[in-house]
Design goal:
By secondary structure, the chain is an all-alpha fold. The protein contains 20 helices and no strands. The longest helix is centred in the middle third of the chain and has 32 residues. The model has no long low-confidence stretch (mean pLDDT 87).
Length: 447
């Protein structure tokens, strides 16, 4: 039976980290450190739950079930198709991939250009090179692990390490925590990790990891699952270490740059402080590599999914070309329009993803029925939908909006948590009681 050697396993693990670590992962931790100040480590602990633990569990779970479709099929066949397709479209060409090409340009490349430069033309050239390189990597999925896990991501990690080491020797200027980080750092940290949307991305990347392990010749399902679990743990550990480094940078400079608007601003100011203007080039390279590896994972997983969904009428290469070209166009001409629709869509489907991950990981202990999965999915989908309609589109539904507003954690965007938990628990308990009742009835008939 084929097993991965140490080099192959390391490449798979590092690749998974690279797939996770995009622009959002790069800018959220420094902002957390800047705003949390002296409460940074408390906030980071809860941030890690939603930004590390859930994504890792999601990737492992999808790897174990051989794809997101099989996991979501526990709710129902129609739900599986609609939910999985929504995940791939929203986190793919609907938002994730175009943003991966646009964000590094806006945050790291544009500030380096002369004022007379046409930003539209510069963005076009940058994204053409960016998506051209991503396409080249994705067209050879058998070489994905080597290109991402052996070359691109290790280079990214070395750059981040170089960045961090310089700040170890900087005299800390840590400010007191601000806003919600001052009053409730645990809750604020948890919600900040929620915004990374990595639990949704994990439902794509778990499939990529499975394909990568298969590509090394590991055909035994149990063996693949074991490697997926181990790779997830390694990738999660790397994520946690890198998040700690970036949060530290934000923390020790929080007294110097109070009131930063975003993590990119924190990094830009901090890098110029210790490296001078030349440090912006290092930051630009870090942003580009971080977004490129995530982009590659999203294109690969989406191309493979739609290739299978449409019964292989279009080749994998064709789907990769379609996704890459569409994302290139949107990154230049339609990103704001996409954001207006995709961000609310992600806000709606993210809670369902969390519920499926939790239920999937605890299935062997509680034996959830299809009905329990259905109720869990319903409440974690319907309640966020009502919230988004009210908060984003100012649309109030008779009775429903007021009902959802009255639920605990509504203001935090978590009104779905307690109802979903309660629904799954009650349905599962009633199911167990009904099973016991049927067993007793059968025993009575036999007597």
């Amino acid at each position: 039976m084929k097993k991965l050697n140490r080099s192959e396993f390391t490449q798979v693990s590092v690749m998974l980290f690279g797939l996770f670590f995009g622009a959002g992962n790069l800018i959220f931790p420094p902002l957390l450190g800047n705003q949390a100040g002296d409460q940074t480590w408390v906030a980071l602990a809860s941030f890690a739950i939603t930004a590390v633990l859930f994504p890792v569990l999601g990737a492992i779970l999808v790897g174990k079930t051989d794809g997101l479709s099989n996991l979501s099929n526990r709710v129902g066949a129609l739900f599986s198709i609609l939910f999985t397709t929504a995940i791939y479209l929203s986190i793919g060409p609907g938002l994730g991939i175009p943003r991966a090409g646009s964000v590094p340009f806006e945050l790291a490349i544009a500030p380096l250009l002369p004022e007379t430069t046409s930003l539209g033309l510069a963005r076009l050239v940058y994204t053409l090179c960016f998506f051209g390189l991503a396409l080249w990597i994705c067209l050879k999925p058998t070489k994905l692990v080597k290109r991402v896990g052996k070359y691109l991501t290790p280079t990214l990690l070395v750059m981040i390490l170089v960045l961090f080491v310089r700040f170890i020797f900087l005299s800390p200027q840590t400010a007191p925590a601000l806003g919600d980080y001052q009053t409730s750092p645990l809750t604020k940290g948890f919600l900040s990790g929620y915004e990374t949307m990595d639990a949704v991305a994990a439902l794509n990347f778990g499939f990529v990891v499975t394909l990568a392990i298969k590509g090394f010749g590991v055909t035994d399902k149990e063996e693949r699952t074991r490697y997926t679990v181990k790779a997830g743990l390694v990738a999660g550990s790397l994520l946690l270490v890198v998040y700690a480094m970036l949060s530290y940078i934000g923390m020790v400079t929080s007294g110097l740059f109070p009131g930063a608007e975003n993590g990119a601003q924190v990094l830009s100011q901090a890098v110029q402080l210790v490296f001078g203007q030349g440090g912006l080039y290092l930051l630009a390279a870090i942003f580009t590599l971080a977004c490129l590896t995530t982009c590659v994972g999203l294109i690969t997983s989406g191309g493979e999914y739609f290739h299978v969904l449409f019964k292989k009428k279009l080749s994998y290469r064709s789907w990769v070309l379609i996704w890459t070209f569409f994302s290139f166009v949107m990154a230049n001409f339609g990103l704001n329009t996409l954001l207006a629709f995709s961000v609310p869509l992600l806000t709606i489907i993210y809670p369902v993803a969390l519920v499926l991950i939790v239920m999937g990981m605890t299935q062997r202990f509680f034996g959830y029925s299809k009905l329990a999965y259905g109720f869990g999915a319903f409440f974690s989908l319907a309640l966020p939908l009502v919230e988004v309609l009210n908060k984003t589109f100012k649309l109030s539904l008779p009775f429903l909006t007021d009902l959802v507003k009255s639920l605990p954690l509504y203001e935090e965007g978590l009104s779905w948590v307690l109802p979903s938990l309660l629904a799954v628990t009650l349905v599962s308990l009633l199911g167990k009681v009904y099973e016991k009742y049927q067993e007793r009835g059968q025993v009575g008939q036999e007597i």
